[in-house]
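We were asked to recover a plausible sequence for a given structure. The inputs and outputs are reproduced exactly as logged, with field labels preserved.

PROBLEM: sequence recovery
POSITIONS: 494
GIVEN STRUCTURE:
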C-alpha cells in the first residue's frame, strides 16, 4: 500500500471518529439534569467528549502574520484610523500580568470625548449577513434565533479568510480565554455549592450542543473559509468566548437602511477595562454613525483609561466577563424559594401569591443583596407570605382585599406595614436559618479560598472562582448579621 493511500485511509478513519464523537456529544448533551449531582455528571460526560474532540481535531492555522503584540497594536491602530476612528488620545498597552487595556496619552476631565469608533469597523450580525456566510445565517433556524451564535460564526469565518477586512482586529484578540468553556474538572468542582455552578455547567453543555448541531450544518456549505476542517470545537469555544466577553448591543443600519439594535464587536474600544462605581458613558451618534466613549472620571496622562461596564452581579461578571470585581456594590445572590405541596397551608399561600400577582406563584428565584439596603421587595413579599400562620393568611384573603388585590400587594411589600412582631420574628429567623444552610454547602473554608487567591501558581480561572465564592459568602454573612440584628431589636421591643 502506498504512503498516499495509507494517509487517505488514516484521514478517513479520523473523520469517522470525529463524526462519531460529534454524535456522541449530541447524545450526552440531551440528558436532562436537575440535581447538583446530575449536573456534575453531565459536565464530566460533556468534558470527556469535548476533550477527545480537541485532541483529535487538527488545530487549523489561519494565516495570521507572525508579529509581536506591539506590532499587532500598531497595525490595529493604523487600520482603525484609516477607517475613520478617532483614537489618538489613548493607546493599547499591557496594564497587568497578561492583561491589556488603554492608556491615556493626555489628561481627561469627566465628560471629555476619548474615543470615536465608526460602525464601519464593527463586526455585527448585519455585517455577517453581507458576507458569503449570509446564506447559512438566513436559512438556519438556530442562526435566526441566536444572534450571538451568528456573531461567533462570523468571527471564525473571517479568522480563516486570507483577505478579511477585519484581520487587523482579529489578530489582536486573545488567543485563549478564562470563561467557563475552558474550566477543567478540578476548577469546576470548586464552583459546586455556589449559584454559579448550574450556570457554568449549562453554559458548557449548551455550547457543546450547539457545536454538534452546527458541525453537521456546515458540512452542507461549500467554499467557505469556515468548514469541517476549520470548525473545530476548540475554535468554536474560542469564538463564543470572544462574543461572551466583548458583545454589545449597538443601533446599526441594517438591510433596507433601517436602524435597529444588533449584537456587535467594537474593535479597540473593547480593550477598555472595567472600573466600579460609575455609570455608562458610551453612546451612539446616529448622525455620524459612530460609537462615542466619554471619560467617566478624571484621568491623568499615562494612566489607564477605564469605564464602567454597568450594574452586574458577580455571577454575571464570572460567566460573561471571566472575572469578578472586588467588593461589587451591585452584587446579588440568587435565592431559590418555594412552597412544598406537603405544606397544609399550601393552597392558602398560593392563593395569596396569585392575588398579589407574584410570579411564579409557588416557587421562583429571588435575590439577596448587599445589606446596605433592605431585602428586595419581591423577596420580602414571598418570605412574609411563606412565614404566615393560618390566621394571617385568612386576613390576607378577607373581603377587604378581594375587590382591590393591588392593595394587598402594596401592604405586603411595604416595610412600614404594622404586621405582628411574631411574623417579623419568623421572617428574620427564616432569613438567618436559610443563609446559614446555604453557607454550609460551600466546599472548603473562606481562609482556604484566600490562600488560593494569594498563591501565584494557581490559574486565573480558579482565582476567579474563588473571588466569586468569596462574594457569595460575603452576601450570606451580611444577611445573617442583618437578620440577627433585626431579631435582637424585635426581642428588645417585646
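RECOVERED SEQUENCE:
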Amino acid at each position: 500500500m502506498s504512503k498516499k493511500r495509507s494517509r487517505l485511509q488514516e484521514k478517513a478513519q479520523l473523520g469517522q471518529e470525529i463524526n462519531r464523537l460529534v454524535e456522541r456529544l449530541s447524545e450526552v448533551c440531551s440528558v436532562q439534569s436537575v440535581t447538583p449531582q446530575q449536573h456534575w455528571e453531565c459536565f464530566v460526560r460533556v468534558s470527556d467528549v469535548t476533550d477527545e474532540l480537541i485532541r483529535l481535531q487538527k488545530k487549523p492555522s489561519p494565516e495570521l502574520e507572525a508579529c509581536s503584540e506591539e506590532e499587532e497594536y500598531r497595525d490595529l491602530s493604523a487600520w482603525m484610523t484609516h477607517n475613520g476612528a478617532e483614537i489618538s488620545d489613548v493607546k493599547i498597552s499591557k496594564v497587568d500580568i497578561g492583561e491589556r487595556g488603554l492608556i491615556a496619552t493626555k489628561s481627561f476631565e469627566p465628560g471629555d470625548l476619548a474615543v470615536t469608533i465608526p460602525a464601519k469597523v464593527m463586526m455585527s450580525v448585519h455585517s455577517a449577513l453581507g458576507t458569503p456566510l449570509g446564506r447559512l445565517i438566513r436559512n438556519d433556524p438556530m442562526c435566526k434565533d441566536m444572534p450571538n451564535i451568528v456573531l461567533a460564526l462570523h468571527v471564525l469565518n473571517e479568522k480563516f479568510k486570507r483577505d478579511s477586512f477585519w484581520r487587523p482586529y482579529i489578530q489582536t484578540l486573545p488567543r485563549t480565554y478564562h470563561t467557563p468553556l475552558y474550566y477543567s474538572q478540578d476548577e469546576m468542582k470548586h464552583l459546586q455549592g455556589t449559584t454559579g455552578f448550574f450556570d457554568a455547567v449549562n453554559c458548557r453543555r449548551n455550547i457543546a450542543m450547539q457545536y454538534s448541531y452546527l458541525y453537521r450544518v456546515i458540512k452542507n456549505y461549500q467554499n467557505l473559509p469556515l468548514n469541517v476542517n476549520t470548525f473545530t470545537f476548540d475554535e468554536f469555544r474560542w469564538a463564543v468566548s470572544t462574543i461572551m466577553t466583548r458583545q454589545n448591543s449597538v443601533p446599526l443600519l441594517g438591510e433596507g437602511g433601517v436602524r435597529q439594535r444588533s449584537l456587535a464587536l467594537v474593535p479597540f474600544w473593547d480593550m477598555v477595562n472595567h472600573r466600579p462605581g460609575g455609570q455608562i458613558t458610551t453612546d451612539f451618534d446616529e448622525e455620524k454613525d459612530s460609537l462615542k466613549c466619554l471619560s467617566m472620571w478624571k484621568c491623568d496622562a499615562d494612566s489607564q483609561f477605564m469605564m464602567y461596564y454597568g450594574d452586574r452581579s458577580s455571577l454575571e461578571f464570572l460567566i460573561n466577563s471571566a472575572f469578578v470585581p472586588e467588593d461589587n456594590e451591585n452584587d446579588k445572590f440568587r435565592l431559590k424559594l418555594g412552597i412544598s405541596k406537603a405544606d397544609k397551608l399550601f393552597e392558602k399561600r398560593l392563593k395569596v401569591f396569585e392575588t398579589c400577582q407574584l410570579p411564579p406563584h409557588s416557587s421562583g428565584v429571588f435575590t439577596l443583596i448587599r445589606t446596605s439596603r433592605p431585602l428586595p421587595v419581591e423577596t420580602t413579599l414571598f418570605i412574609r407570605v411563606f412565614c404566615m400562620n393560618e390566621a394571617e393568611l385568612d386576613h390576607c384573603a378577607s373581603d377587604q382585599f378581594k375587590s382591590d388585590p393591588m392593595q394587598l400587594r402594596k401592604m405586603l411589600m411595604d416595610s412600614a406595614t404594622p404586621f405582628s412582631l411574631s411574623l417579623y420574628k419568623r421572617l428574620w429567623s427564616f432569613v438567618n436559618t436559610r443563609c446559614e444552610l446555604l453557607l454550609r454547602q460551600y466546599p472548603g473554608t473562606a481562609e482556604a479560598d484566600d490562600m488560593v487567591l494569594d498563591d501565584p501558581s494557581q490559574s486565573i480561572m480558579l482565582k476567579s472562582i474563588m473571588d466569586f465564592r468569596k462574594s457569595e459568602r460575603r452576601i450570606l454573612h451580611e444577611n445573617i448579621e442583618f437578620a440577627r440584628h433585626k431579631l435582637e431589636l424585635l426581642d428588645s421591643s417585646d
